[in-house]
Design brief:
CATH class: Alpha Beta
GO molecular function, one term: ATP binding
Strand order of the largest sheet: 5-6-7-3-8-9
CATH superfamily: P-loop containing nucleotide triphosphate hydrolases
Domain ABC transporter: 24-238
Bound molecules: adenosine-5'-triphosphate
CATH topology: Rossmann fold
CATH architecture: 3-Layer(aba) Sandwich
Oligomer: single chain
Shape: globular
Largest sheet: 6 strands, mixed
Number of strands: 9
Order of helices and strands: EEEHEEHHHEHEHEEHH
Region (Disordered): 1-21
Number of domains: 1
Number of helices: 8
Protein name: ABC transporter ATP-binding protein
Keywords: ATP-binding, Cell membrane, Membrane, Nucleotide-binding, Translocase, Transport
Distance between the termini: 46 Å
């Protein structure tokens, strides 16, 4: 029987003396479904302000981990220390269709927050003009930006992103990636991005984790200079290492092929100015 030891804290989880402040500290985390441990004794520390990408094969438990960190799942054993100010955005923007965009942005905030607060967050994601619109009138990319604004309005110290760009077309996806990179640089919050896309991980993150068999099986720093492009020196080596950690031959398997195709389509405009 899982014991609930989830203990959200108001300040980032403490680190031993001399180490940078931690945004997240997880020890011995186990989450089981029907007696099967999807996460099994996982340990993880994320530094404050660090951008981390989380890769792993389908079904390995990435979303489960994110939901635990978001505080949406407390049926766990182990210790999870996260900042109180945290926000999550999912692949599906999850906007309430009967509320205008600005009201969606403020959804769930305590008290009676003013429209101006939503408008500030919407301006950050370039959606000022759609504040009064109904969600069904938004494009996929706009809806995703509204979802990001809803996360930003919470002023998170930890931003959790679960494949937020997965459903977007190639160009919209690149714009959304650039936006997240800019927001991260401006806000300075820790970001944990779940993605299937190795290139996306390497373009955006300081650090990439690969999840396997219920734990973090591989953990690497991405020391590439910014701005980054998929042709940067060192990119291909990291890419092939990560693909092999995922059990995919570089350039061979279908998943990687689809990503290659997307990036070829977008390569002409892809440039990360951060
Ligand atoms: N509420 C639930 N009840 C039962 N099983 C669940 C539940 N949530 C997740 N699982 C199982 O836990 C495992 C991990 O699921 P999870 O969604 O975390 O994987 P993932 O790595 O995010 O996958 P994907 O990359 O395909 O989104 C899967 O086998 C899934 O079926």
């Amino acid at each position: 029987m899982a014991t609930d030891l989830h203990r959200p804290v108001t300040t980032p989880a403490p680190s031993p003396a001399g180490e940078p402040e931690a945004a997240v500290r997880v020890e011995g985390l186990t989450r089981s479904f029907d007696g099967r441990a999807v996460i099994d004794g996982l340990a993880l520390t994320l530094k404050a302000g660090e951008f981390t990408a989380l890769l792993g094969r389908s079904g390995c438990g990435k979303s489960t981990l994110l939901r635990v960190l978001a505080g949406l799942d407390r049926e766990i054993a182990g210790t999870v220390l996260v900042p109180r100010r945290r926000a999550v955005a999912f692949q599906a923007p999850r906007l309430m269709p009967w509320k205008r965009v600005w009201r969606n942005v403020l959804l769930g905030l305590p008290g009676k927050p003013e429209r101006a607060l939503a408008e500030k967050a919407l301006a950050e994601v370039g959606l000022t003009e759609r504040a009064g619109a109904w969600p069904k009138t938004l494009s996929g990319g706009e809806a995703q930006r509204a979802s990001l604004a809803r996360a930003l309005v919470r002023e998170p110290d930890l931003l959790l992103l679960d494949e937020p760009f997965g459903a977007l077309d190639a160009l919209t996806r690149i714009k959304a990636q650039q936006l997240v990179a800019e927001l991260w640089q401006r806000r300075g919050c820790a970001v944990l991005l779940v993605t299937h896309d190795v290139d996306e991980a390497l373009l955006l993150a300081d650090r990439v984790l690969v999840m396997r068999e219920g734990g973090i099986a591989y953990d690497t720093a991405v020391g590439l200079d910014r701005p980054r492009g998929i042709g940067a020196p060192g990119f291909a080596g990291l890419r092939s290492r990560l693909l092999s950690e995922l059990g995919v031959e570089d350039g061979g398997a279908e998943d990687a092929g689809a990503d290659d195709q997307r990036h070829r389509e977008a390569a002409a405009v892809a440039h990360f100015d951060v």
